[in-house]
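Quick start: what a row looks like.
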Amino acid sequence: MRHRFTFLCITLAVALVFLTLAKAGRFQAAGAVSHKRANVQAAPDKPERKHTGSVIAVVNDKAGKPVEGASVELKDTVTKERTSLKSDKDGKCTFSKLFPGTYDIQASKGEMEASFRGLKVSNGRITNRELVLRPKK
């Protein structure tokens, strides 16, 4: 009888330790689902993806005149996702709903081209960038 009592006490003590650890988040039983949420901040190379910004590109020639119909491509440097637009009569094109991060932008028309690397897009901000077309190399 004494051995049964000792066994019962040890079993209860072990169960109490596991319950205490589980409640403190230091132990999780196999197959159990944890509902804790990690407070994670985006790394600079993996931008936070719930807010957006915009880029307004203006394509001009060497004389400073707007270039209509230029192909303008914006590339996310992390995801490598590309978006292309054509410039309007004022040489403008607007890329909206962009995730914050770093982008490369390039424009071309005929034998002329321009590019810029490292364009920063921030939450709720409009980033303006002029692209001056020059002869392709």
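That is the whole record. Residues 2-24 form the longest helix (23 residues). Confidence is low (pLDDT under 50) at residues 29-43.
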